[in-house]
């Protein structure tokens, strides 16, 4: 097998790793050997801190402290505590973020609250290309808000600004597209929504932990996001909600469980909402998942978001360059924006046999994923992805594509497509 | 300190433990030494199986398998698998129960689905004395179902049957009262609801794992329940939903996230519901919490529910007898039904200084809990509670009450009131 990638790229990658200000963070992760993991945008890997946090929760807090740990281990305050740890990663104040439930459930709550703040307006504007759970939930939120409420679905390429008129209550957007990695202009689109009198809800699933987000600086109204991708909170980790301080005074959200009550342990029959971001809580929080996320977040304490973004851009650019200068270039069409600043922390390519190619690549020790019908998706997590990883990944990808090794692999079923 | 409890009760308890067909299960639990834990109705304790299950999930499935574990460890099927393990504990077929989210979130989904099945009817009938989260959620579910929908709150003692007329869509009841342990007649009230043309939703939070439930035999329409009480699934463990087969054909629930889609990994913009109980799923499931619950449930494989109920009744009766025949009897008024068959698996007493008494009791190694204003609450979990435990607990309770040791303890704050 001939070399598919210029040897110079390997040297440059090694030099970049040696100079990487985030290089030390990789040791915080427990990564399988001989695996290049470029699917942290689907499920972030295990950290030693997360393992230790879960053990302490199970053995000590639950096992020894039993029900008393609601107080002694402050499980009661956990949703706030984890929210406050996520806050700096999205450019929010600690008291404006809370951790709870799943992104789907949280989106329903936030859309309900946002619609309630725009009475007399009946439309949610959203993109049909969005991650499907957002579509389904938005439909339900509109339908349950009133008979005239509905969602306007924008087709790919349709101008978002042009849809914003005086009937729009909420503009709901996902910041980074899960297929292509294309990133929206958060500041500009939020301004456009506000200019039309609408509120904006951002889904940060593919942004938090990978982009130098600034929700407060962008005047974002509400945001939700995911704990199990770049935050490495573990499979199905709880999600989070951001609400701008100006909106926290009178939150009317639809899932007012007892944890949303101002005094849950009074067990009072009448509902009175907590003040602040805690109004978005619902039922008893899942402590195990939340403590795991909390522990995983502990490694972020001294991380500079600008370093994250810089490295993410550099990793993506190196990967694109490596593929573009390889023998496989004619067979792999870039599905992501060519301009790095318009990408999140992933790069995607079209290939007609994407499923087979990805299976072969996984067999070769490079884990990315595919999205139907033809997208190969590679995520870069600046805390553990090395420059050498992306060059090696490009090399193996190019070899598989050029050698046509994917056809036989395509016949084999299985693999991770989540 | 004089003996407060007849010595004969200790002998009888020891004999009962020696003959207990469930006696062997206690070894499955990792209980703190020198602690009598009678608060499993708040948070069930750790099992060795749960610890091992969590470790395997973290270290092997997540740590080594990474995103591939959605398939290789069948995380995708976990919600169904855990539901099927809960099913026999509530008298349901395996395919009629699913595990997901919190009880609050699940109640919202189930109420939404039930209301949709009774168009033209606008009322939910429920008890004001219910656990508050059910009240708050029912209010929201009614409000979001349509402008004429509302909840009728029955005062304590008000006849449920008398409220059931042709406008009632749903009778929502909690099977076992969280304060008093009073248990409703599931078969009779379900029949009454059906006779009025209404559907019934049962909250099994304080029943599942402690009562010989038979939701299918009682023709229950929908039920929800909790994973972290008698099922020992861990703090904030995911909850479950039961739906009768007859209702699974056209479920219209409000939280249709991508996991409720018939083909979630097609990422299709149009929503098409899963067939069957999976229609109640919402977002990406919290794997850690669900795997912990799954492991905790593994110890139930050979448990006979009739043994559970028999022992639960016997434990409760012994506790009541021990208190009633103690020197403290005049100071502790039974708050639970006197007739054992009308109780769930807990016994409560009124005491004017309940908070202080419980703090003193916890300091003496007996963990129960209190509910405002004056209820001392003791839960019996037949898999690990021994007869000797309840006699010792009654002995220490009587000593505290008779000696008046609770007044100084009342000044100290803290303790578990969850």
TrEMBL record, chains A, B:
NCBIfam families (UniProt xref): kynureninase (TIGR01814)
Catalytic activity as recorded in UniProt: L-kynurenine + H2O = anthranilate + L-alanine + H(+); 3-hydroxy-L-kynurenine + H2O = 3-hydroxyanthranilate + L-alanine + H(+)
Any one GO BP annotation for this protein: L-kynurenine catabolic process
Pathway given in the UniProt record: Cofactor biosynthesis; NAD(+) biosynthesis; quinolinate from L-kynurenine: step 2/3; Amino-acid degradation; L-kynurenine degradation; L-alanine and anthranilate from L-kynurenine: step 1/1
A Pfam family this chain is assigned to: KYNU_C
Entry GO MF terms: kynureninase activity; pyridoxal phosphate binding
Organism: Salinisphaera japonica YTM-1
Requisite cofactors: pyridoxal 5'-phosphate
InterPro entries: Kynureninase, PyrdxlP-dep_Trfase, PyrdxlP-dep_Trfase_major, PyrdxlP-dep_Trfase_small
Primary enzyme class: hydrolase
Subunit structure as annotated in this protein's UniProt entry: Homodimer.
Function: Catalyzes the cleavage of L-kynurenine (L-Kyn) and L-3-hydroxykynurenine (L-3OHKyn) into anthranilic acid (AA) and 3-hydroxyanthranilic acid (3-OHAA), respectively.
Name of the protein described by the UniProt record: Kynureninase
Keyword field: Hydrolase, Pyridine nucleotide biosynthesis, Pyridoxal phosphate
Protein family membership: Belongs to the kynureninase family.
EC number of this enzyme: 3.7.1.3
A GO CC term assigned to this protein in UniProt: cytoplasm
């Amino acid at each position: 097998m001939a070399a598919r990638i210029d040897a110079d790229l390997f040297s440059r990658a090694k030099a970049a790793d040696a100079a990487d200000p985030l290089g030390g963070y990789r040791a915080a992760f427990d990564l399988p050997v001989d695996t290049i993991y470029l699917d942290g945008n689907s499920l972030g890997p295990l950290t030693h801190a997360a393992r230790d946090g879960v053990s302490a929760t199970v053995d000590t807090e639950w096992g020894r402290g039993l029900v008393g740990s609601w107080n002694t281990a402050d499980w009661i305050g956990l949703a706030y505590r984890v929210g406050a740890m996520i806050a700096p990663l999205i450019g929010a104040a600690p008291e404006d973020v809370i951790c709870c439930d799943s992104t789907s459930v949280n989106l329903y709550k936030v859309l309900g609250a946002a619609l309630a703040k725009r009475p007399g307006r009946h439309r949610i504007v959203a993109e049909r290309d969005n991650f499907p759970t957002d579509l389904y939930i938005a439909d339900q939120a509109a339908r349950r808000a009133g008979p005239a409420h509905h969602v306007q679905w924008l087709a790919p390429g349709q101008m978002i600004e042009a849809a914003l008129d005086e009937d729009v209550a909420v503009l709901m957007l996902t910041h980074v597209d899960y297929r292509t990695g294309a990133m929206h202009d958060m500041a500009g689109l939020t301004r456009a929504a506000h200019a039309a009198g609408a509120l904006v809800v951002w889904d940060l699933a593919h942004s938090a932990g990978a982009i130098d987000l600034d929700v407060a600086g962008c005047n974002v109204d509400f945001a939700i996001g995911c704990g199990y991708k770049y935050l490495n909170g573990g499979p199905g980790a709880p999600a989070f909600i951001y609400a701008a301080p100006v909106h926290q005074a009178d939150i009317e959200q639809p899932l007012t469980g007892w944890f949303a009550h101002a005094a849950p342990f009074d067990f009072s029959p009448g509902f009175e909402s907590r003040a602040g971001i805690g109004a978005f809580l619902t039922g008893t929080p899942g402590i195990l998942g939340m403590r795991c996320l909390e522990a995983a977040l502990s490694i972020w304490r001294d991380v500079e978001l600008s370093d994250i973004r810089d490295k993410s851009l550099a990793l993506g650019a190196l990967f694109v360059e490596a593929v573009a200068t390889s023998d496989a270039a004619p067979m792999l069409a870039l599905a992501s924006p060519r301009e790095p600043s318009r990408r999140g922390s992933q790069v995607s390519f079209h290939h007609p046999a994407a499923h087979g190619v990805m299976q072969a690549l996984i067999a070769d020790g490079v884990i990315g994923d595919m999205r139907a019908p033809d997208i190969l998706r590679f995520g870069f997590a600046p805390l553990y992805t090395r420059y050498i990883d992306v060059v090696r990944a490009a090399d193996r990808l190019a070899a598989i594509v050029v050698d046509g090794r994917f056809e036989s692999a395509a016949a084999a079923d299985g693999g991770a497509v989540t």
